[in-house]
């Protein structure tokens, strides 16, 4: 017979989970779905009258179709290149052991966490007239944009595919080889189909990130190339055509929602392979000979595509008038600069405190979302409901930060929630952008808990609270360092929403870099290179520390 104390404990337990779900749900509703809904109304309702005039005007213009074609075509091409280059990298870095593998893995992940505006500046300095690849004539060319997108998203394929590949039972390929299949045929007929869901999931995410590379296109596209994101910014800030911007934002929201639903479904299919195999193989002389193509491709990507832009950025930031100098860095401390209304040191301070607040908010909400989404209901309906909850909180991952910033401008500018003139709006927007990365970093740690361990604890008399405190929370804590690093690094370099919301007298470092890079003059250009290098180093240091806290044996992305 249940005691009154047990019933009270159970009620408190259920109430706690309701509260844990309501808090992040309210944040998502107010700061994501409300602005998104306002965008929909802006596109379909003008002066209180339902109309499709905005859509008709936007989609009847040849410019719109040219922009859509460039956005989808560039994202698709960059995704294909990432997949072709990333599969060899996944094999080498997740199926083979060799000295220095951890260092190479860290180098591969650094580009993904770099701010897009830094990536744009790095590739801009690589292909301009003074850069090492200047003679190729790719300055202000779409190929530079393509390479920058591949640079930024290469690690998505490597880590998504590699994490699953490391857990595939190697005896499957060995059996095919024993039956007479060549290594290539064994890969194509056995390994590749098993990796299919992971490749498709990684490709979907890569496509989303490529299609929303706002900073890259803003820096490298100039006046010749525009994507949906940059066009939203142009229609909003330059032409003040909010219905047209809303129509483009709605189009992007629909595409992103469909892709995220597909990605979530594909990632569910990859979870069944996570415990099949957790070892990888060393590298013998015979293995090196067999994997020579994989080694060559991966080494070329790491040395040429990943390291060269970053090394060139750092080197050129130290060059002045043909010699080595710290002039560009010293100029960052100058209070008087025609391109800026504040010294760069203030922008650095703004970026740091805003990133700290945003990361704290994202981490607190991400912990609640991860705990709720990691429940293990017995019914199929309950499990589907939790997958849907997880998918909702991952939705901001693929929605343009520009769309988020635009939505805030038209919703959070009047009572009952007037935040347009408040500095709090920027960390809120950045926390929303970082939240999906926090959830993706924490959930795998909770999913890695063996259900039999939880059942054994309950059998031995532990109540729900004690199981949570002694098993689930310690396991969750293993991923907190990585999640905090992702949140802080993402917020530190966020540019899309911040470009809409920052005030001229309180810019962040990415906004300052964009302003400097877009102004003529050697001083401004040198300062842009120095500021971009500084931001890249800050981001890399944060992620290096976070990678050191990565939970062992847990498949985080």
UniProtKB/TrEMBL annotation:
It is found in: Cell inner membrane; Cell membrane. The lineage of its organism: Bacteria, Bacillati, Actinomycetota, Actinomycetes, Propionibacteriales. GO terms for cellular component: plasma membrane. The chain crosses the membrane at residues 12-34, 67-94, 106-127, 142-162, 190-223, 243-266, 292-315, 352-373, 385-410, 422-443, 480-501, 525-546. Belongs to the binding-protein-dependent transport system permease family. Keywords: Cell inner membrane, Cell membrane, Membrane, Transmembrane, Transmembrane helix, Transport. This is Iron ABC transporter permease. It comes from Tessaracoccus rhinocerotis. GO terms for biological process: transmembrane transport. Residues 68-263, 348-546 form the ABC transmembrane type-1 domain.
